[in-house]
Amino acid sequence: MRILITNDDGARAPGIKLLEEIARSFTDDVWVVAPEFDQSGVSHAISLHEPLRVHHEGEKRYFVRGTPADCVILGVEHLMDSRPDLVLSGVNRGGNMADSIAYSGTVGAAMTALTLGVPAIALSQYFQGVEVKWDCARAYAKPMIEQLLNISWPSKVVPNVNFPHRDPGTIEGVKLCHPGHGFIEGVNVVERVDVRGLSYHWLQFRRSAEEVVDPDCDISLLRDGYITVTPLRPDRRTEWDWAAMRADFGELLNVAPLPDLS
Question: What pTM was computed for the model?
Answer without folding.
Answer: 0.91
